[in-house]
Design goal:
single chain, two-stranded antiparallel ribbon, 2 strands, 47% helix
């Protein structure tokens, strides 16, 4: 079975997540507030700004509740399971990268100061 076509000449699996999501939403003909409402009927609480951020690429779903919302969104938009989630790739790194190597950080916490 070939991937679903969501706009002429493109398939979900070849598009970046934001573009595929935007195309699927556009193809549904539903505005974001209706999508939010319909997800709410399914027990998923999500804001219109969050949906907008996802489709613009400013943010992406990573937390468990966001991934659940995305699974429901796939169903709502009549997409196969994992059609959008498979485009996310690995989670983005979180936190600040330290310039102090881990071995030195560990000693510093037990000794109270950073070694020089």
């Amino acid at each position: 079975m070939s991937p679903p076509k969501i706009f002429p000449g493109a398939t979900l699996h070849t598009e970046p997540f934001p573009r595929a999501l935007r195309a699927a939403i556009t193809a549904s003909g539903l505005p974001l507030d209706r999508i939010r409402h319909r997800l709410g009927l399914r027990g998923v609480s999500i804001s219109v700004p969050t949906l907008s951020h996802w489709q613009s690429g400013r943010r992406r779903p990573e937390r468990p509740e966001s991934l659940r919302a995305l699974a429901e969104l796939e169903q709502l938009l009549s997409l196969p399971p994992l059609a959008l989630r498979s485009l996310l790739g690995p989670p983005r790194p979180r936190g600040r990268k330290s310039s102090v190597p881990a071995q030195r950080r560990d000693r510093a916490t037990t000794e109270g100061t950073y070694p020089t």
